[in-house]
Design brief:
630 residues; mainly alpha; 5% strand
Length: 630
C-alpha cells in the first residue's frame, strides 16, 4: 500500500462547494432549492414553516458574504457555531487539487474489453439486442469511466431504511452533511462529498446536481489517505418511493465501490441479499459490508451477529477478504458513538490510495456480463461438420440425382453399342424388328415424371435437414438456429440445380469410346458374315446348276459363319464387360462429384461459414473469460 504524500493534505475548516461551482452559484442553488422545498411544504408539514424564517435569514447572509456555507436541501443545518465545535475556526487550503489524469486499464483488462467489443460485433446479427444489452452497457461504462479521473475513487454508501448510512456518511465527512432523523425516507436524493478537487466530471456522470455536492470538514486528525475519495450517500434501497430505488439502482451501476450498511435487525433482509448482494457477488473486491449500530447489541452479541452476517455473505457467494485474500471487507461499528469508524476510515483510505477500484469494478462487470452470455456461447460438445456427415450428405444428394442409375445406364449404353458393332447382322435385324413392333413401356414399367421429381425433392430436403441437424448438434440455441437457417437458404433451388446438373453431366454426348480390339472384332464378325453369304451363294449355284456339285465346302463355310458369328459376339460381350463397367463407374463418379459440388456450394459452405463464425466468437469469449471455454 502506497502512503500518500504530504501534498495530499485535505481542505480544512468549513465545507465548500465542489470545484467547478462558484460560491455565488452554490448560494443561488441553495436559494433555488429552498424555494423548491418551500413549494413541497405539504410533505414536510410544520417543519418547513418553522425553518422558513431561519432560511430567509441565512440566505440573506449568504448574499452578504461568500464565506458562509449553505447546505440547500439539508434539513440539519450547520451554522458557524456548530462548525466551530467540530473543527478549528481557521480555514486552510491543501497543497492543490489532484490532477485529473484519465483512468488507465492494465493490459489484461484492455485485452478483455477489446475481446468483448469484438464479441458483441460478431454477434449482433446472430443474437437479439436484449441478450447483448448488458455487454454493451459494460463497454459504454468502461469507455466513459476511462475518460475520467483515475486519481479519484467513487464510493457509494447504500443501505436499508433506518440502517444509519447517512449517520455513517456524516461521521466519515466530519460534519452533518446528509440529513438524519426518524422521518422515512430521510435521504431523498444522492449527495456527494469530495475530499479533493478535480472530481466534478465524475459527479456529473452520477447525475448529482451542484446543490447536492459537498466538501468535508477536516480536523487536525483527519486522515490524508482519504484524499481522492468521492463519497455518495444513496437513498434507501427499500424505500417506498420508486424514484429513490431508481436512484440507487442507477448509481450502483456507475460507482467504483460500495459500502453496504446493515443493522442488527435487517442484516438478513431477503430484499438486500436477493436483489443486490447475490447478483453483485462477483464485485466482492470493491465491496464493504458494515454492521452498524453495534452500540445496541449487548455483550458478545456483536460477534454472534457478525459471524451470522459472514455466513449469509458466504451463502450469497461473496468472497470475504480475510487472511489477506481478495474479497469484501466486513466490519462492525457504531456511527453514533464512533466505535469502529476509525477502522473503516483506515481501510477506506488504503482502498482509495491504491487507485485500483475503478479497474476492479470494470473487470467484475466484464465477468458478470460474460457469465450472463455463457449460455449463448459455451457448449460442452464439440460442434462442427464431421467428414462422415459431409460424405453422407454427398451420398444422399447423389442418390437424389440418380447417380447410380446414371452409371448403370452408361454401362448398358456401352454394352449396347458394343453389341451393335460386334453382333451378327441377323440378330441386330431381329432386335430392330422387336424395337419397332413393341413399345418401350411394354417391356420396362416407367414411373411418371412428376412422381420422380417429387421423390427427388423429398430426398434433397431430407439430406439438407439431416446435415443441418448434425452440424448444429450441441451448439447454443442462437447459433444452432443460424446454422439451420443457412442450410435452409442454401436448399432453396437445390433440386432444380441438381436436375440441370444431371442433364448436363449424365451421359457424355456422342458414342461411348471404343477399345483397341473393337475393329478386330468387327472385322471378324464381318468375315463370319461373308463366309455365311459365300457358302449360301455356293449352295444356291449348285442347286440351280450353275456350279458343279460339291456340298462339303459351301456347307463348311456356312457352318463356320453361322457358328463363328455368335461366338465372336459372345466373346465381344465378355470382353466388353470390363470397359462398360469402367465407363459406367466414370459416369457415376462425375455425377456424384457434380452433385457434391453443388451441395457444397449451396449448403455446406454457408453452414461451414456459420460454424467458423461461432468458433471465432468462442475464441473471443474465451479471451473475455480469461481462460479456455469447453
Amino acid at each position: 500500500m502506497n502512503a500518500p504524500s504530504s501534498e495530499a493534505a485535505l481542505h480544512k475548516g468549513t465545507p465548500v462547494e465542489d470545484s467547478g461551482t462558484p460560491r455565488g452559484e452554490a448560494a443561488a442553488h441553495a436559494r433555488g432549492e429552498h424555494d423548491d422545498r418551500h413549494a413541497r411544504g405539504e410533505h414536510d408539514g410544520t417543519r418547513v414553516g418553522a425553518m422558513d424564517g431561519d432560511r430567509r435569514d441565512h440566505t440573506k447572509s449568504d448574499m452578504e458574504s461568500d464565506d458562509i456555507w449553505d447546505d440547500g436541501l439539508i434539513a440539519r443545518r450547520v451554522t458557524e457555531a456548530t462548525a466551530a465545535e467540530l473543527v478549528p475556526a481557521v480555514e486552510s487550503r491543501g497543497s492543490g487539487p489532484l490532477p485529473a489524469t484519465p483512468l488507465a486499464y492494465d493490459g489484461p483488462l484492455r485485452s478483455r474489453l477489446d475481446a468483448l467489443r469484438e464479441l458483441v460485433g460478431l454477434s449482433r446479427t446472430r443474437l437479439d439486442s436484449r441478450t447483448l444489452a448488458e455487454a454493451g452497457r459494460v463497454l459504454d461504462e468502461a469507455a466513459a469511466r476511462r475518460r475520467l479521473s483515475g486519481q479519484h475513487t467513487v464510493v457509494a454508501i447504500a443501505g436499508a431504511t433506518g440502517s444509519g448510512k447517512s449517520q455513517l456518511f456524516n461521521a466519515l465527512a466530519g460534519v452533518a452533511i446528509s440529513e438524519t432523523g426518524v422521518r422515512r425516507p430521510t435521504t431523498a436524493a444522492p449527495i456527494a462529498c469530495s475530499w479533493s478537487d478535480g472530481a466534478a466530471s465524475l459527479i456529473d456522470r452520477l447525475g448529482i446536481p451542484g446543490r447536492l455536492r459537498r466538501r468535508p470538514v477536516q480536523g487536525p486528525d483527519g486522515d490524508p489517505q482519504l484524499r481522492g475519495l468521492v463519497l455518495v450517500d444513496l437513498p434507501d434501497h427499500d424505500s417506498a418511493a420508486v424514484q429513490h430505488r431508481e436512484h440507487v439502482d442507477r448509481i450502483l451501476g456507475l460507482v467504483d465501490a460500495v459500502i453496504w450498511v446493515v443493522d442488527p435487525e435487517k442484516y438478513a433482509d431477503a430484499v438486500l441479499h436477493e436483489r443486490y448482494l447475490r447478483p453483485l457477488a462477483g464485485h466482492a473486491e470493491v465491496m464493504f459490508v458494515v454492521l452498524n449500530q453495534i452500540d445496541r447489541l449487548p455483550g458478545e452479541a456483536t460477534d454472534q451477529v457478525l459471524d451470522d452476517l459472514r455466513r449469509l455473505l458466504d451463502e450469497d457467494g461473496i468472497a470475504l477478504g480475510e487472511h489477506g485474500e481478495p474479497g469484501a471487507t466486513v466490519l462492525a461499528l457504531s456511527a453514533l458513538t464512533g466505535d469502529g469508524v476509525g477502522e473503516l476510515r483506515e481501510s477506506l483510505g488504503q482502498f482509495v490510495a491504491e487507485h485500483g477500484a475503478a479497474a476492479r469494478r470494470i473487470s467484475a462487470d466484464v465477468d458478470a456480463a460474460a457469465l450472463r452470455l455463457r449460455p449463448v456461447y459455451a457448449t460442452r460438445r464439440r460442434a462442427g461438420l464431421t467428414e462422415e456427415a459431409r460424405e453422407e450428405f454427398a451420398a444422399r444428394l447423389a442418390d437424389a440425382v440418380g447417380a447410380t442409375a446414371a452409371g448403370e445406364a452408361a454401362e448398358r449404353a456401352w454394352l449396347r453399342n458394343a453389341g451393335r458393332a460386334c453382333g451378327t447382322p441377323w440378330l441386330r435385324l431381329w432386335r430392330w424388328y422387336q424395337d419397332r413392333s413393341e413399345p418401350p413401356t411394354g417391356r420396362l414399367p416407367m414411373r411418371a415424371q412428376p412422381d420422380e421429381e417429387a421423390t427427388a425433392r423429398q430426398r434433397v430436403e431430407q439430406a439438407v435437414r439431416t446435415v443441418a441437424d448434425r452440424a448444429s448438434a450441441g451448439l447454443p440455441a442462437p447459433w444452432a438456429q443460424a446454422v439451420r437457417e443457412a442450410a435452409a437458404r442454401g436448399a432453396q433451388g437445390l433440386p432444380e440445380a441438381l436436375d440441370e446438373l444431371a442433364a448436363r453431366t449424365g451421359l457424355p454426348p456422342g458414342r461411348p469410346p471404343r477399345p483397341g480390339w473393337w475393329p478386330v472384332a468387327v472385322l471378324a464378325q464381318a468375315s463370319m458374315t461373308i463366309l455365311q453369304v459365300v457358302g449360301g451363294l455356293w449352295l444356291a449355284g449348285q442347286i440351280i446348276g450353275v456350279m458343279a456339285p460339291n456340298l462339303g465346302v459351301p456347307v463348311l463355310l456356312m457352318v463356320a459363319g453361322i457358328i463363328g458369328g455368335p461366338l465372336v459376339e459372345w466373346s465381344c460381350r465378355i470382353a466388353a464387360r470390363g470397359p462398360a463397367r469402367r465407363y459406367g463407374q466414370e459416369a457415376e463418379r462425375r455425377l456424384r462429384e457434380a452433385a457434391a459440388g453443388c451441395g457444397r456450394a449451396r449448403v455446406l459452405d454457408p453452414v461451414a461459414a456459420e460454424l467458423l463464425r461461432y468458433r471465432e466468437v468462442r475464441e473471443q469469449y474465451a479471451r473475455v473469460m480469461g481462460a479456455g471455454v469447453r
